[in-house]
Write a structure and sequence with these properties.
67% of the residues lie in helices and 5% in strands. It is mostly helical.
């Protein structure tokens, strides 16, 4: 149990939890962007097509009548329009993550270059060197 407490109390776990929450809502924003902003104009340019409604019907729905005829079977269809929306959403999220990682790597490279450019301070002399320097100075006098 102590090991679990140590694991949970680490900063990385909290950062990961915050990242997961942010990613969930970022995904919702991107999904809305694709479904509500990008796809309607694209559908309009393609002749008023709503991508979310694009599907291949395998079996038509059978409605139940008032007399009890029919079994009320639901439609069976392949919703490839929703699949296209999901692919576009994925591509936007992947591009956004790519840009974040690229910016992070550029920042990291700049910091490393600054550290390399700054000359390292010479190491402090050892005790023996200090003692030998004092002896030398005394012999000069």
């Amino acid at each position: 149990m102590n090991e679990f407490k140590k694991f949970i109390s680490k900063g990385n776990v909290m950062e990961m939890a915050v990242g997961m929450i942010m990613a969930t809502y970022f995904g919702a924003i991107v999904k809305s962007l694709v479904n509500d902003v990008i796809m309607p104009p694209v559908g309009m340019l393609l002749g008023g097509v709503d991508f979310a409604d694009l599907k291949i019907v395998i079996q038509q729905a059978v409605a139940e009548t008032a007399e009890g005829a029919g079994d009320g079977t639901a439609e069976v269809a392949l919703g490839y329009g929703a699949f296209l929306n999901t692919i576009i959403t994925f591509l936007i999220v992947a591009f956004a993550i790519f840009m974040v990682v690229k910016a992070y790597n550029n920042m990291k490279d700049r910091l490393e270059k600054k550290e390399e450019a700054a000359p390292a301070a010479p190491p402090a002399p050892s005790k023996e060197e200090v003692l030998l320097g004092e002896i030398r100075d005394l012999l000069k006098k």
